[in-house]
Amino acid sequence: MIDLHCHVLPGIDDGPESAQEAIELARGAMADGISTIVATPHVDASHPEVRAGVIQAAVPAFQARLERAGVRVKIETGAEVAFTRALDLDDAELRALTLGRGGWLLLECPLNITSTPGFLAAARQLACRGHRILLAHPERCPLFLREPDELSQLIAEGMLAQVTARSLGGRFGRTVRTATLHLLARGSVHVIASDGHDANRPARIAGHLRSAGLDPGLIAWLTREVPGALLSGADLPAAPRPARGRPRRRLTRMVGLPRAGESPVKYK
Question: Hey, where are the domains in the chain?
């Protein structure tokens, strides 16, 4: 698997504080079946010193530490960029913060309701500037929990959605889990990543996917095929057709997905 969203670099944001903790985070990811981790430290007002040059220097240094420790995981450069910070950065810096070499910017969907005003306009403004947007954890964003049709519109405009594996396991509550299943049933999820931070929020994906009973073809698409395409800049692979009775039909029944013409579900 490819983990497109993980705060694995030590001492740079709210991820692991020490190199040893970061090594153990990556070791756990390797045991989970993750072969590539994209290091996505926060680029926001709380971490003003985190810029593309800092990340690009930290990744090879950490990769060397992993090799010495026998951890066989490849680390790629990236960032999780807050929309308020993104608007202040020039296009060259934003391009340097994209995931791997593919040109996709991981834009953080705000988790605090007071931070949501202006997000939709900012995301569209960044897209108009030529940036391809992968939306980080929209299933946990108050804006999209209240108005899921707003997320559908952004996806229709060409943005993609990355959900957190722990959301499937109910680690963020029943409402978020239901929202995640709803998005999967509608085909509005393109990537599942760990958003790993530390021992309390490990870089694990596989177990959460098993708990949801997703079709193996869909799992491969969400964790290998689409992430690989985004890292390389290749065209998005076609979504797999669900096996008979799985998984979107079953997910549709689980979340009570509306039929065509009905109003979208809203989560209070």
Answer: 2-255
β partners of residue 218: none
Cα diameter, the chain: 57
User: What six digits make up the tokens of 236?
Assistant: 């998005």
Question: Among residues 28, 25, 30, 32, which one has the least CA distance to residue 207?
Answer: 32
Task: Tell me, rounded to whole angstroms, the distance of Cα 220 from its chain centroid.
Answer: 15
Q: How distant, in Å, are the alpha carbons of 30, 68, 236 from that of 203?
A: 9, 20, 24
CATH of domain 2-255: 3.20.20.140
Sequential pLDDT tens for the chain (268 residues): 999 999 999 999 999 999 999 999 999 999 999 999 999 999 999 999 999 999 999 999 999 999 999 999 999 999 999 999 999 999 999 999 999 999 999 999 999 988 788 999 999 999 999 999 999 999 999 999 999 999 999 999 999 999 999 999 899 999 999 999 999 999 999 999 999 999 999 999 998 998 888 999 999 999 999 999 999 999 999 999 866 555 444 444 444 433 333 334 454 4
Q: Please, are residues 122 and 84 in contact by the beta-carbon 8 Å criterion?
A: yes
